[in-house]
């Protein structure tokens, strides 16, 4: 797993509150976390106490001035080619509420993030290859909120279920898949979908995001030269904006909020448990059971963590002293994830696989018609 850390700038509010920075990013790889109390004590006197600093090294560390494009180019761009060839990949943004996850993945309309930049790159690559291959691109966008899966593209209260399919792996039954033809199509879809996310006020943040949002891009590629016997490569890219990782204790949750808190922790906790078990197995060569089945998120991500997917984690952190605890936790979490290795293989299906899929659909429709 490639692990990157991104620090956002101090916000206006944090500057008004006279927060100070406790993070240094160095050499595009190192993150140094300083103890806020030590920094305060050292002001104007002895200089800071190095022994209280914590240092972490990552594949990439991005400071507050790093543009969206640079994040994309270093973390995600290299995955696009693989998707066209039938490999799976996953990129997820981790971090406390307000640390910059949504900014990194979705971004703003004037400054779009990883999701849009990925699709833009995909369309560029497709144009280059269109003489040799037929491509089909579909996207789906869902959220997991309170351990319930909802479609973000087709708005409905319906709760969707996970299915395990022999050929396709884990899928979400009834989830809409939309064919997209241009980056503009995608832009509208993303911002529309994001507005449909469940957001509620909590003690920690006015619009704390308590849901995990998952964009999946599925690309089917068929070599034009190979005629009707061709194999079809199916690549799947999952781009994930996780719910806030802050501890429930900090948010003064009560009642329903408390239940939600427990569920968010359940998915994130179980993500952490899976990461720990995987790291243990890799370091010690042990064969611990990986508890993927403990939450919806980890079931969906099963293939991405220890399995058949190139995986990137972008850990988002705030630079201010008030965020010390959250930032420390995020850095420890990301540091552990560095040890996970995945092994990828191409997903290829022959045309018969697709023909049989459509034959089934046609038979089903026929039987529906005959019962009318
Ligand atoms: P999260 O999704 O982790 O809760 P957001 O992405 O919503 O956090 O970020 C919180 C605020 O900080 C938003 O107003 C966002 O625009 C701003 N922000 C986050 N990251 C950056 C960045 N790298 N540069 C500038 N502003 C940022
Ligand atoms: Mg968010």
UniProtKB/TrEMBL annotation:
UniProt lineage: Eukaryota, Sar, Alveolata, Ciliophora, Intramacronucleata
Binding, ATP: 95-102
Lineage: superkingdom: Eukaryota
Similarity remark: Belongs to the TRAFAC class myosin-kinesin ATPase superfamily. Kinesin family.
Coiled coil, from the record: 355-372
Protein name: Kinesin-like protein
Domain Kinesin motor: 1-340
């Amino acid at each position: 797993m490639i692990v990157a850390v991104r620090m956002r700038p101090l916000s206006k509010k944090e500057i008004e509150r006279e927060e100070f920075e406790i993070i240094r990013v160095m050499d595009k790889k190192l993150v140094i976390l300083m103890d806020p109390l030590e920094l305060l004590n050292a002001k104007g006197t002895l200089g800071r106490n190095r022994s209280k600093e914590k240092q972490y090294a990552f594949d990439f560390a991005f400071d507050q001035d790093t543009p969206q494009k640079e994040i994309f180019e270093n973390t995600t761009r290299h995955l696009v080619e693989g998707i066209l060839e039938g490999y799976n990949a996953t990129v997820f943004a981790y971090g406390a509420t307000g640390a910059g996850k949504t900014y990194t993945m979705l971004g703003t309309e004037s400054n779009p993030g990883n999701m849009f930049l990925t699709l833009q790159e995909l369309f560029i690559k497709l144009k280059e290859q269109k003489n040799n291959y037929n491509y089909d691109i579909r996207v789906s966008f869902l959220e997991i909120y309170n351990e319930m899966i909802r479609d973000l593209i087709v708005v409905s209260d319906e709760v969707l279920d996970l299915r395990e399919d022999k050929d396709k792996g884990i899928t979400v039954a009834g989830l809409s898949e939309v064919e997209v033809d241009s980056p503009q199509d995608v832009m509208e879809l993303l911002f529309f979908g994001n507005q449909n996310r469940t957001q509620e006020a909590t003690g920690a943040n006015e619009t704390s995001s308590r849901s995990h949002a998952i964009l999946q891009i599925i690309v089917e590629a068929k070599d034009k030269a190979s005629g009707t016997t061709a194999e079809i490569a199916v690549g799947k890219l999952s781009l994930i904006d996780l719910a806030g990782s802050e501890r429930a204790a900090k948010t003064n949750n009560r009642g329903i909020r408390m239940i939600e808190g427990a569920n968010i922790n359940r998915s994130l906790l179980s993500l952490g448990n899976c990461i720990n078990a995987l790291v243990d197995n890799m370091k010690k060569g042990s064969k611990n059971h990986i508890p993927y089945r403990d939450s919806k998120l980890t079931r969906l991500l099963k293939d991405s963590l220890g399995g058949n997917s190139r995986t990137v984690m972008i850990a988002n952190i705030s630079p201010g002293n008030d965020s010390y605890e959250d930032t420390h936790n995020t850095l420890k979490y990301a540091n552990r994830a560095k040890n996970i290795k995945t092994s990828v293989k191409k997903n290829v299906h022959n045309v018969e696989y697709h023909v049989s899929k459509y034959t089934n659909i046609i038979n089903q429709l026929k039987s529906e018609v005959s019962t009318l």
